[in-house]
Structure formats: structure tokens, C-alpha cells
Amino acid sequence: MGRAGALVDDVKHPTKTRLDDPKTIAGLQFYADLSALYGAMPNPVEYANFGIGAERMFANGRVAMFLSGIWETPLFRNYNISWDVVMFPTGPDGTRAFGTGGTGYCILRSSKHKKAAWEVVKALTSTSGRSSFAKRGLAQPARIDIATGPAFAEDPQPPANKKMLNEAVQYAVFSPFHPAWREIEEKVIKPKLDLVFNGKKRAGEAIKEIVPEVNALLREQR
């Protein structure tokens, strides 16, 4: 199989999950083994026992790296530590991918102040608005001219390697565009995968239980 594993068959129009793809199962088990087998990272129970978030553990030297978003930048600029960002690593077969999302601004149809709201949206998405967010480290600009310019890629403030993030977008994987996906994730997928990540179940075993439930919910709410 030349393709990588995935959550569903079609992100924009999902009809069934691909969690039972052998590559997906292998990826999930590899992730779980990083803590359960190799001790390379804490498992969910250990994180909970520490009582602090991953970002604080990183700042305190408890972990060497962690996965998060660019919005952590203002916080880390206040810490007296040397830090930077790097490209998400590849898997054993050379595949590189990571989950992501985005920020969108909208105006409710029922809004009583549509004209004022439109002015806010225009300000937030303008060159000056996007540049302000970029320089403060709160967001990676969606506008290419800002993302590659002095407000972001060429900005001397940490992280020094942030221009890499403009290349990283090609490896981004979005969650399925389905109205029930968040519920499916919280009620069906995460509880069973937590058992895998805590070393109590193998990925293949958990996936066999998950797939029928996920497919049924996808069909039910299409």
C-alpha cells in the first residue's frame, strides 16, 4: 500500500472511517509504543499525575519537546529558556503528517449589528490586522505576503525557525468535515484509544471495536 493511514475515506465528504487501514493501525501503535514500550514520552495518566500541562513541563525541563500551535509563542517569549520550533518528524516509512485546524471569522445571520461586525472582520483580516497577530506570535498568517515577510518569517523574535512553518502546511491533515465528527471523536474514538495509549490494549484490538460504531454514526448523520 503506497498511501498513508487516515481517519476517513474522504475528509470533505466522509462515508466511512479508515482507522482499520493497516497503516493507520501501525501509526497508532507506534505512537502508543513511544511511551508504553520506549519510554520516550509520558502517557496520558502520567501527564495527569504531573498536574501541569505539556507546555509547563517543557518550560521546566521535564520534557524535551512537545506538540502544540504557534499560539504558545507569547507565553514562551516570557520564559527565560532557549527554545525553537522544528518540522514535525516523519514516521518509520518516511511519511510526514500532522493534524491541524484554522481560524475563520463569520457573522451570524441573526446579528443585530451586521455592519459593525463586518468592519471587525475586515480589520482582523486586513494586512495590518494579520501582521499584528503574526508579530505577537498568536497566529500563522494565511496571507502569503505576510507569512513570508517581516511580520512573520523575517521577524527576529523567537522562534527563530518559524519560517519553516510556511513549508509545514503541505503536510497538514484536517479533521473530517462532518457535523457529528467532534461527538464521534469524544464519545467513541478517544475513550478506546486512551486504553491503547495507556498500554492496556493493542491498537488493532481497539480499532475493531471503534470502526463499526464510527461507520454507523457517519451513515446515520449524513
Account of the 3D structure:
The protein has helices spanning 22-36, 44-50, 54-59, 73-77, 114-125, 127-136, 144-147, 164-168, 181-197, 203-220, and strands at residues 98-100, 172-174. The chain is mostly helical. Strands 1-2 form a two-stranded parallel sheet. Helix 9 (181-197) packs antiparallel against helix 10. It starts with 21 loop residues before the first helix and ends with a helix. The model has no long low-confidence stretch (mean pLDDT 91).
Quick tags:
222 residues, mainly alpha, two-stranded parallel sheet, 10 helices
Which regions have little confidence, pLDDT < 50, spanning 5+ residues? none
Quaternary structure classification: single chain
Helix content: 40-55%
Main beta sheet: 2 strands, parallel
How many E strands? 2
Strand order of the largest sheet: 1-2
**Strand and helix order:** HHHHEHHHHEHH
Number of helices: 10
Distance between the termini: 29 Å
Shape: globular
Q: What fraction strand?
A: under 5%
Mean pLDDT reading: 91
Q: Gyration radius, to the nearest Å?
A: 20 Å
Secondary-structure-derived class: mainly alpha
